[in-house]
Amino acid sequence: MKGLKLLVYGLIVAGLYGALFAYEKEVIDICRRGGWWFLFPVGVAFVISIFHGNFTSLFWDVLGVQARKPH
Asked: What is the mean pLDDT of the segment spanning 25-34?
């Protein structure tokens, strides 16, 4: 089950990064508008961060890597 979630999150992250690079000019144009448009790149970064964080967490879980517990 975790392997399937890992694959889904991996595909979503790859798609988000692909879209970001494919629409690079449009994203830059939006960022240059000024005003409240500064929230657009913040929102994009937040969305990518959420999916990338979930992907990374599942990646390490599937590999069996666990954080060391403090003494």
From this structure: 93
